[in-house]
């Protein structure tokens, strides 16, 4: 019979890797808690319409990459390809705005996109992110950027570059769209098929194309940041001023637009040279129009999303040990059948006291059990045999020192503390 294997574009996170993930998630929760964000968890699938309306029908995610299916009630459902639209849906549906005018949310979640698998980009991938809902203040944008950078700093990741831009609002974009189309039109036939398709409805997305020919053709394109309305210009200037105050270095990228339709004003990316050509580790920005697009009340909002797989890749490339290898505290060895009940009692007591403890379940010889204790980098091996039972003691081998001592059976847990 053919052996079944995992689906293309997915991965098994093996035990030796899970400790890295757990360590990273602990850092994320710690930093986000310091910034006063609260965790929100949403269903793994949503109505397809949520993403079609929220992200945009013409985006690659909606038009090419979503995992969409029809359930038994004939509803069209989609595995989440991103988290901002579900966060906004949950914010509105659960009336989170009723408790406070400002809501600060973070998440850690698996997401799904049927794109071509490559390093750090899988069809099931994981992101963490933060969203501030209810504030139009550019200071909220700055805090979101600072929050993401603080997670990386706490993880030990270095040599990151922050790129910023403003994509304005609908008032700015109407005249800019015409400027951009006038620039592109003479050479439209030289652009890729996707860009030609975007030309009429969403020409700004052409600036986001990674095709080398398109990138070259866009080099002299008009810059939206030079065509902002007064309000958007004021917001962008305040963003840069506050980044300077916090001594957060940044680079202005006039062609940074991000890949989703819901962005307004601030957009940003954080990149790492450890990731090669696809170097973004984090992206985000402001999306003040999304709430209304989903049928809710006007709600200014800003947020970021960061790929966990890509973050782990950067950490490994920089030699950062997210989670030191953890050995076993205690391995218990019973010399005969009479010792087995005592081993079980001690094993439970040690675990309840906070020790990482285990025993043999394969009926191996004492020599084989010692090899196993060594393999698991055990600090203390506790041996109970006929002699120990008669003396009401246990033999304890201090593996790092190569010494062996005896401790009272009834006081093993407390006495062992002295040798930690």
What would CATH call the architecture of the largest domain?
Answer: 2-Layer Sandwich
For the largest beta-sheet, the strand count, sense and barrel status come to: 8 strands, mixed
Arrangement of strands in the largest sheet:
1-5-6-11-10-9-7-8
How many helices?
A: 15
For CATH, the homologous superfamily of the largest domain is named as Bira Bifunctional Protein, Domain 2
- Rg of Cα set: 28 Å
Structural class: alpha+beta
Q: What is the strand content?
A: 15-25%
Q: What is the number of E strands?
A: 16
* Number of spatially distinct domains: 2
Determine and state the CATH class of the largest domain.
Answer: Alpha Beta
Helical amount among residues, as a percent range? 25-40%
**Which segments are poorly predicted (pLDDT under 50) over 5 or more consecutive residues?**
none
What would the average pLDDT be, to the nearest integer? Answer: 91
Overview of this protein structure:
With 420 residues, this protein is an alpha+beta fold. The chain has helices spanning 15-34, 48-54, 60-65, 84-93, 138-155, 170-184, 193-198, 212-217, 230-245, 290-293, 308-317, 340-352, 366-375, 386-391, 412-416, and strands at 38-39, 45-47, 68-70, 76-79, 103-112, 124-133, 160-166, 251-252, 264-272, 280-286, 301-307, 330-334, 357-359, 380-384, 393-398, 403-408. α1 packs antiparallel against α5. Helix content is 36%, strand content 21%. It has an eight-stranded mixed β-sheet, with helices on both faces. The chain has a five-stranded mixed β-sheet with strand order 13-12-14-15-16, with helices on both faces. A three-stranded antiparallel β-sheet has the order 2-4-3. The protein folds into two domains: 15-169 and 229-317, BirA Bifunctional Protein, domain 2; 330-414, Rossmann fold (3-Layer(aba) Sandwich), CATH 3.40.50.
């Amino acid at each position: 019979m053919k052996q079944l294997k995992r689906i293309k574009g997915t991965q098994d996170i093996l035990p030796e890797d899970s400790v890295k993930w757990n360590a990273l998630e602990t850092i994320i929760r710690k930093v986000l808690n310091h910034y006063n964000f609260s965790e929100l968890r949403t269903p793994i699938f949503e109505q397809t319409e949520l993403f079609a309306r929220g992200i945009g029908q013409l985006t690659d995610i909606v038009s090419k990459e979503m995992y969409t299916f029809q359930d038994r009630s004939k509803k069209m459902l989609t595995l989440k390809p991103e988290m901002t639209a579900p966060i906004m849906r949950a914010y509105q549906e659960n009336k989170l705005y009723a408790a406070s005018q400002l809501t600060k949310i973070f998440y850690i979640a698996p997401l799904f996109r049927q794109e071509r698998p490559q390093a750090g980009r899988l069809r099931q991938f994981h992101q963490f992110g933060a969203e501030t809902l209810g504030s139009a203040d550019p200071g909220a944008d700055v805090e979101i950027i600072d929050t993401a950078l603080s997670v990386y700093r706490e993880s030990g990741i270095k040599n990151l570059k922050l790129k910023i831009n403003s994509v304005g609002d609908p008032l700015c974009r109407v005249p800019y769209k015409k400027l951009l189309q006038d620039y592109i039109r003479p050479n439209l036939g030289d652009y890729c098929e996707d860009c030609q398709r975007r030309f009429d409805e969403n020409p700004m997305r052409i600036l986001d194309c990674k095709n080398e020919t398109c990138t070259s053709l866009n080099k002299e394109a008009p810059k939206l940041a030079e065509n902002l309305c007064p309000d958007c210009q004021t917001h962008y200037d305040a963003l840069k001023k506050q980044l300077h105050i916090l001594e957060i270095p940044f680079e202005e990228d006039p062609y940074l637009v991000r890949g989703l339709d819901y962005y307004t004003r601030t957009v940003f990316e954080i990149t790492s040279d450890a990731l090669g050509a696809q170097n973004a580790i984090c992206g985000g920005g402001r999306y003040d129009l999304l709430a209304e697009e989903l049928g809710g009340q006007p709600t200014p909002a800003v947020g970021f999303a960061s790929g966990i797989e890509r973050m782990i890749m950067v950490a490994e490339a920089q030699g950062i040990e997210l989670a030191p290898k953890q050995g076993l505290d205690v391995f218990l060895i019973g010399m005969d059948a009479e010792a087995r009940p005592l081993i079980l009692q001690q094993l439970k007591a040690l675990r309840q006291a906070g020790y990482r403890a285990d025993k043999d379940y394969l009926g191996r010889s004492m020599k084989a059990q010692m090899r196993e204790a060594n393999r698991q980098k055990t600090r203390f091996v506790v041996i109970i045999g006929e002699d120990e039972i008669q003396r009401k003691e246990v033999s304890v081998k201090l593996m790092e020192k190569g010494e062996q001592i005896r401790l009272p059976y009834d006081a093993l847990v407390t006495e062992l503390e002295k040798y930690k």
